[in-house]
Every structure is written in C-alpha cells, then in structure tokens.
Amino acid sequence: xxxxxxRRVLILCxxxxxxxxMAEGIMRWLAGDRYAVFSAGSKATSVNPFAIRAMDEIxxxxxxxxxxxxxxxxxxxxxxxxxxxxxxxxxxxxxxxxYRRMHWSFPDPAAVEGDEARLQxxxxxxxxxxxxxxxxxxxxxxxVTHGQS
Length: 149
What we know:
about 150 residues, alpha/beta, Rossmann fold, four-stranded parallel sheet, 3 helices
C-alpha cells in the first residue's frame, strides 16, 4: 500500500513573526500529519511573544517555531501558498510557482498599542485564522475525496 504524500502548505507574511507563525501552528494543530506546513516572510525576525501567549491560551505551543525568509523555499513544490498580510497596509511576499494561491487579509496585531489591546488583537487574528483553516482543511478533504477514483 502506497502512503499518500502530505500536501505542502506555505504561509507567508511580512516579518514571519506573528500572523504566519500563528497560522503555521494552527494548521499543524488542526490538520495533524496530513500536511507539511511551513511559514516564512519577506524578512526573518523573531516570533512575537504575544503570538506565543495567544497560542498558549488554546494549548498550541509555537515556541519551537522560528522566523524564516521566503527565499529559503524558492524552487520547492507547494500545493498551496497562503498570504496572511493586510494587503491594504503591507506588501506581502510573492513566491513564484505553480500552486493554489490564497490571500487572507488580517491586520497586523503587533501594530496595536497597549499590552491588553495588543493581546486581544492577537486573539482576534488567532480566532480568525482558526476559522479560515477549518474551512480550508474541510475543503481540501472534499477535493481529495472527490478527486480519487
């Protein structure tokens, strides 16, 4: 019996410090080992401590994740590349290739002033990402199931 290859998903943002890091953790949490999930940005920074706190609240540990640049993934095959930047305020990185492209606009929670307000902004983005990825995984399962003979 041949094992089905994992679907490869790359999540992009500007700094790979908040939204894309939370998205990577959420996708792994929701989809388990059915997907190989990566995140990257235009520049590498560090994972935002508020992202770690917001994810801790739902039992998802992203402490071992680290910031990467999208250049590290050039030439690699992906089934889907998802940008999670706020396209009205930021330039999201673009990765050339043949894959399903999606853009989910989320405002930068790190730009919010005040610790409590900032943490709430991270929670809001986290919760929005959870809903998007639940729909993404459900849709992918339908496509895979209906595509098999």
